[in-house]
């Protein structure tokens, strides 16, 4: 099993698909890395030599922000918005949708499970 950027990538998948298991690398960046190193996209991870895996690891370390660093950057950006108390920061703080979605109905993923409201007395 190949270990790249602290992630065990699956050996039986194609290189492009396996690289997407790393947080911060999607299809486009995976194709970009493979073409830069001259690795055929249809090859499987188990068919790669140790030297090729090392090349992939070094390329990712040198040119891309992935895994822990990327998560840290994202959380710091959100924390910065909350400290500024700008509109987006307040929405993050309240746990509401940040990008202008409606909240009258829907938005359950962001707001959490719905709470029952007591009925009107007769």
Number of helices: 6
Please give the alpha-carbon distance between the first and last residues: 67 Å
Uncertain segments? none
Give me the count of strands.
Answer: 2
Content of β-strand: under 5%
Rg calculated over all Cα atoms: 21 Å
In helices, the fraction of residues equals: 40-55%
What number is the mean pLDDT? Answer: 92
Q: What is the molecular shape?
A: elongated
N-to-C SSE string, H for helix and E for strand: EEHHHHHH
Largest sheet: 2 strands, antiparallel
Structural class: mainly alpha
Query: Biggest sheet: strands side by side, in what order?
Result: 1-2
What this model shows, in words?
This protein has a two-stranded antiparallel sheet. Helix 4 crosses helix 5. The termini are far apart. It has helices at 15-19, 27-37, 50-63, 67-84, 87-94, 108-111, and strands at residues 2-4, 7-9. The radius of gyration is 21 Å and the shape is elongated. It is built from six helices and two strands; from the N terminus they run ββαααααα.
Lay out the secondary structure.
Blueprint: E1 2-4, E2 7-9, H1 15-19, H2 27-37, H3 50-63, H4 67-84, H5 87-94, H6 108-111
Briefly summarize what is shown:
The chain has 122 residues and is mainly alpha-helical.
């Amino acid at each position: 099993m190949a270990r790249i950027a602290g992630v065990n990538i699956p050996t039986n998948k194609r290189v492009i698909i396996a690289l997407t298991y790393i947080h911060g690398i999607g299809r486009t960046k995976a194709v970009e890395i493979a073409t830069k190193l001259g690795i055929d996209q249809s090859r499987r991870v188990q068919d790669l030599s140790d030297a090729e895996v090392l090349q992939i690891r070094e390329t990712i370390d040198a040119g891309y922000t992935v895994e822990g660093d990327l998560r840290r950057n994202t959380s710091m950006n959100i924390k910065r918005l909350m400290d500024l108390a700008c509109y987006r920061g307040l929405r993050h703080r309240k746990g509401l949708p940040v990008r202008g979605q409606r909240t009258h109905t829907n938005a359950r993923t962001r707001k959490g499970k719905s709470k029952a409201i007591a009925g009107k007395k007769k």
